[in-house]
Amino acid sequence: MKLETFLSQKKSAILEKWLNLLLDSYPSESSALFKKNKDPFSNPMGHTFSQEMASIYDALLKGTDFSQDPSSAEMLIKIRAVQDFSASEAVSFVFSLKKVIREELGEMIGEDGVQAELQALDSRIDDLALVCFDHYMKSREMIYELKANEIKERAYTLLKRANMMCETTGS
Question: How would you classify residue 151: left for phi > 0, otherwise alpha for psi between -120 and 50, otherwise beta?
């Protein structure tokens, strides 16, 4: 059996395990809420994670080049970037997919041709992780720029209110 066919058949089981691993990175109360509540309106983050991970999974199976089309991973990483995750914590969910796939494959890993296909898939997952890391860093950079600009604006406003600003004229 071809690896892609097997992974398509096991999609729902793999996605559920993968999502649970991602949600386990949150505090236990949050994780329980995300796992229990499937409603997109009362649990928009859990719903977004589920949708985006399915999109990423489909893109991986299609062989999408994430450096050319990062859209499926971008939203998920932006969410993780605004939260208090380090870069490694934010991106680690990508690598956990390898573990889930291997668990589902079981003894099939030893079959002819599966190793080569699995190595190719691992390479695409690694590429995805690199793209996710880049997006995480861009998002964090944007957050820090916004914070710095806000601090500058506040300082300017305070100085102006205290009449400590001098107007300079150009010569």
Answer: alpha
Q: Evaluate if residue 168 carries a pLDDT over 80.
A: no
Q: What is the pTM of this model?
A: 0.82
Residue indicated by tokens 């002819």? 112
Spatial distance between the Cα atoms of 18 and 12, rounded to a whole number of angstroms: 10
Phi and psi dihedrals of 65, rounded to 5?
A: -85, 105
What pLDDT sits at residue 2? 86
Per-residue pLDDT tens over the stretch 67-107 = 777 777 888 999 999 998 999 999 999 999 999 999 999 88
Answer yes or no: are the C-beta atoms of 108 and 36 closer than 8 Å: no
Kindly report the three-state secondary structure assignment for every residue of 94-115: HHHHHHHHHHHHHHHHHCCCHH
In the numeric block, the tokens 């041709």 are attached to: 113
Say how far apart CA 99 and CA 93 lie, in whole Å.
Answer: 10
- Rounded CA-CA distance 47/34 in Å is 8
